[in-house]
Request: fold
Amino acid sequence: MAVNVVQSALSSRRLNRWLFVLGALVLVAGILALLNSLIGNSSDTKENANPTGPAIQQPAAPQNIRLPAAAWKVANEFVHTAVPRKNLARSYELADANVRAGFTLNEWKTGNLPSIPYYETGKVIRYNWKNTNFAHPREIAQNLILEPRAGSTMKPGPYVIWLKKVGQGAKARWLVDYFGAVQGPPVPNP
Reply:
């Protein structure tokens, strides 16, 4: 019965006339949309050459400074305490929250420091590989080559240390924000 209803509706002249008108309207609307996208829209879509409002200022890059002696002292002391796991209480004082990774002083003193690779530090050499070092008034990145202590079987290796200045005025001090091994130029064996 449902088939007969659909068949009789489609054979109706009145329905066919409305379907024809509806199809013609859709065709005309499509043609108008096509013409509008190809020819129409003569409004100027270029960016305004004279923008209004205040000028956008680009932030100035921090000025490079000479590596402060106080920062180098902290970096050197950290590499000689935390990395070979000696005087861990002092290395805890030199590390900021990023390096401490949520460790308490007692946990730090165990020497199980997954965020800091173990190395039997003997000599620390500063170097600049592909201009990756920088020193700004409140942040420093320094590449290092660590040489092992005498009698060690470890090989020299490239590392990087980041320091941040915390506090203001006379209470400002440098803390180690990151320390880790890096891929760098091969270091010759002495």
Observations:
- Strands lie at 121-127, 134-136, 139-148, 157-166, 173-181.
- Residues 69-178 form a domain with the Nuclear Transport Factor 2; Chain: A, fold (CATH 3.10.450.50).
- The first helix runs from residue 2 to 10.
